Amino acid sequence: MFYPKQLLLLILVFPVLLVGCNDDKGVAPKPIRPVLSQLVEVTPYWQTNIYSGEIRARHETDLGFRINGKIIERRVEAGDKVKPGDILARLDPDDYRLQLTEAEAQLTVAQAERNKAAADLERYDTLLQRKLVSEEEFQNYQKILDVASAKERQASAAVNVARNQHSYTTLIADREGVVTSVQADEGEVVAAGQSIVQLALCCEKEVEISVPENRLDAMRGADDIRITLWALPGKRYTAQLRELSPTADRITRTYRVRLTLAEVGPDISYGMTATAKVRMQLHKQIVHLPLSAIFQKGTDTAVWVVDSERLSVKLQPVTIAEYRQDGALISSGLNGGERVVSAGVHRLVAGQQVRLLK
Question: Which stretches in the chain have pLDDT values below 50?
């Protein structure tokens, strides 16, 4: 129980105690926090896609006979180089030789009939001038000559057709190239137009790849295409998009793409395995930071920038162009050369002293 004198003494002493409790040097300083950091580098950002393909000829031709027949000779194998005029294969020509002989015989008969009709017409012309025959008889022999002449032309055309048919029994290369495949062999009976050999025409070579539908725009807008070959690992080749198929393959559901090589040497062979690296520049100036460097508060996005002299941090608002699995792409807010905190951003406050970890 306090008495009035004791209560008065307590009232006088308590303020002194309060003043003694507050007599310090101020609030305790914030701790210096160790942080990971990295320098900001502004660079163009490229999207890179890699495809596998093979070396193909720009022009590939399936060569076959223009007539039916049985193959009696094939002179080329896959990989052989051919020149214009080289014989690739031959059919049995006996039947076509007989047809030519028959056509030539019919032409001889037609020529004899025409010559006889011409001689008769000449004789009747003389008789007509002497008025020994009528005009009607002369016109009749004129018609006989016209029919004989038509039969001669018909027989001549038949000879030309038979001669062509006979020549078609020999399959001849009309261009320089390389035989890439053979589809028929000696002894086979083939139909007209059936492919016998496939010829890759000299000398344009391309890379054929397959592209899924979600990468077609990236393929069309490619800024740089590089080709490497499995057989020639030390060499790099530049290429350009030449052809993009408008329809997808029914089985793979991918689109066929042809890339033209800028430089083609003799060391590049058809069928070689190729790797195409297709790059498209998505952003001209971009900063790539890890996701751990992004400070998100509500709808605002920022990063902690380190003052190199005071070793303190401050918030810098930034604009995110794209979030990716390996980080964030920042399109504005940083100019390059700044040092930003790359980890532990949500434990910092503005103006806090930091210690940079190596």
Answer: 1-3, 7-24
